[in-house]
Amino acid sequence: MKQMPENFLWGGAVAAHQIEGGWNEDGKGISTADVMTAGSNGVAREITDGILSEKYYPNHEAIDFYHRYKEDIQLFKELGLKAFRTSINWTRIFPNGNDEEANEAGLQFYDDLFDELLANDIEPVITLSHFEIPYNLYKEFGGFRSKEVIDCFVKYAEVVMNRYKNKVKYWMTFNEINNQADGQHELHTWTNSAILFEEGENREEIIYQAGLNELIASAKVVKLGHQINPEFQIGCMMAYVPVYPYSSNPDDQMAALKVMQRRYFYSDVHAKGEIPNYVLNEWADKGYEIDYSDEELKALKGGTVDYIGFSYYMSGTVTTLQDKGGYEIPDYKNSKWLSNPFVKASDWGWQIDPVGLRYILNVIHERYDLPLFIVENGFGAYDKVEADGSINDQYRIDYLKAHIEQLKAAVLEDGVNLLGYTPWGIIDIVSFGTGEMEKRYGMIYVDKDNQGNGTLKRSKKKSFAWYQQVINSNGEEL
Ligand code: P53
User: Fold this and answer.
1) pTM (2 decimals)?
2) Which domains does the chain have, with CATH numbers?
3) Does ligand 1 come within 6 angstroms of the Cβ of 176?
4) Does residue 376 have an active-site annotation?
């Protein structure tokens, strides 16, 4: 029987702002995540102008990993994690984003964290910006609208890549850089680019500019990183939501292709180092004046990524048929986004589609011929603590099992080169989309509710022992 590669990185993933807390400790500055209030299922998070005393900001304390990481890493070790994906919070290192000097206390925190992981044989996998941009860079420059912020990011990356060059091998630049793609969702343009819009601005054009600025920054960092340590593996990080045509109508195929191109723009530039024709033509047709120099085009070419990191949670569906319902999207004439009648959805409406993971692994493998890394996948759900303290999250096991079966098919049957699998929110954390604690992904439960009450005590869910066995058997026993 074919087996998963010996060095396959079974792991778990989180992000600094969703786990650490300690939002104003040891010299840390305010980040974009620190001004996001708690929303709820169906209610958007608010982005406030600075920090307002009457509001609740769930990321300020999060699960207090900042002070509890040692005990949490002991649980990760017991679980058997070979890799742990987190991010460096930019504002611990450069509190304002454009400070002259880096903040030594912030650098020391990540030294200690990485040492602790390595001492427990856990490989750190590090994102440089996971929705954590210094708030000051929004105030001073309007976020990634500005070319100035490219230099701030490159300087920050250079400092941390130098500092941790013997501790961290796997890096990613911008988390889910394509979330912002259509420019329409405030939370996404804020967290990807630190951009808020004025009335009447052309959002699409501005987001193309900001996205390109990030791609240039990323490429410069990839080049620099390889100079700092040629062993570095530096990837991009995409949110892949494969979009299917609803029917075999040729227009539905084109609609699905066009919706995907808007997202592929980002990984195309990351992987191929060039702005694709379909985007250059769109800019010309719409009269967009996107600012880039020859020097920047050269930078793109010189900083292509080593691997494609991506999240996978769900798939989507589009149609041009007019009698199926759904809501209109701009990517192709008369196209509408609708739910897929062949798959079920989570309580938050995320469509559950394990086969979609195998599908997208194949598509991306064919498109780029690069190693792939699933750095997020998981099931956000309400968990119930039983009277005896146990948590029987069989639904989470079912979700993860079904997805691991499909990733195994992609590797063992389809020949996809996959570096690892780090399921999201290995320990319960603050939800990004809603700011809730009770949208839980973890195999480790954290006693805290949506209002911020709870002891923060950690306990193992049923999925803990299950995942332990998956890792132990290198994916054989599901
Ligand atoms: P929450 C959309 C589609 C796929 C992944 O999300 C997404 C999003 C944004 O909502 O985000 C990623 O916590 C993101 C994580 C986030 C995770 O998915 O809203 O990288 O920071 O927590 C899950 O359920």
Assistant:
1) 0.97
2) 9-473 (3.20.20.80)
3) yes
4) yes
